[in-house]
Amino acid sequence: MTVFVDADACPVKAEVREVATRHDVPVKMVANGGLRPDPHPLVEMVYVPEGPDAADIWIASQAGPGDIVVTSDMPLAARAVEAGAQVLKPNGEALTARNVGEALALRDLMTDLRAADPFRQGGGKPFSRQDRSRFREALERALRRAKEARP
Predict the structure, then answer these.
(1) Looking at the DSSP assignment, which residues form a beta bridge with residue 95?
(2) What's the pLDDT at 121?
(3) Cα dist. 79→83, 86, 97, 113, 135 in Å?
(4) Quick one: CA dihedral 26, 21, 68, 54, positive or negative?
(5) What is the pLDDT at residue 52?
(6) What per-residue string of b and e applies to 105-123 under the rule 16 or more CB within 10 Å gives b?
(7) Which residues lie below 8 Å from residue 19, measured CB to CB, with a gap of 6+?
(8) Which of 4, 10, 28, 32 falls between 20 and 30 A from 139, CA-CA?
């Protein structure tokens, strides 16, 4: 059991470290660089080469049943779900086989809308303390489920 974090722009790295280390579960923070090593022995920094989707490709090749993937990237989420991993977005939303297809379709629709209207402004709502709290609770639940499912 490992928690894989798509770490380049992840706003909940500290929460992952806190919850996973309390459960004594290893964490792999995967990034293109620019992140400092974490001194905790359960947290490993994995630096992948620069390039589009290099971190996503590495995580997708490693994650499987019993693992947890933390990402906002919908194609990575879909691949991780397909591989049997639990997937959490940084706001605590779980992505499963039931909803990841819809999330991927919404992402594609929004990409098309932005491409069609170059003056379209805005992004998502700001990341809040409530999002952090929901994420912490969701990761706690995911880790408990993963531990219960172990043979």
Answers:
(1) 87
(2) 60
(3) 6, 11, 10, 24, 21
(4) negative
(5) 77
(6) eebeeeeeeeeeeeeeeee
(7) 136, 139, 140, 143
(8) 32
* Whole-number pLDDT of residue 112: 54
* Amino acid in the structure at residue 130: Q
For the range 51-55, what are the long-range contacts, defined as Cβ-Cβ under 8 Å and sequence gap of 24 or more? 55/6, 55/7, 55/8, 55/30, 55/31
**Which domains does the chain show, CATH number per domain?**
3-146 (3.40.50)
| Residue 109 CB contacts under 8 Å (≥ 6 apart), including other chains | none
Please check whether residue 33 is in contact with residue 9, taking contact to mean a CB–CB distance below 8 angstroms.
no
Q: Token pair for residue 121?
A: 């402004």
End-to-end CA distance of the chain: 12
Output the pTM of the full model: 0.84
Q: Is 128 helix (H, G, I), strand (E, B) or coil?
A: coil
Residues 147, 89, 37, 57: is their CA dihedral positive or negative?
Answer: positive
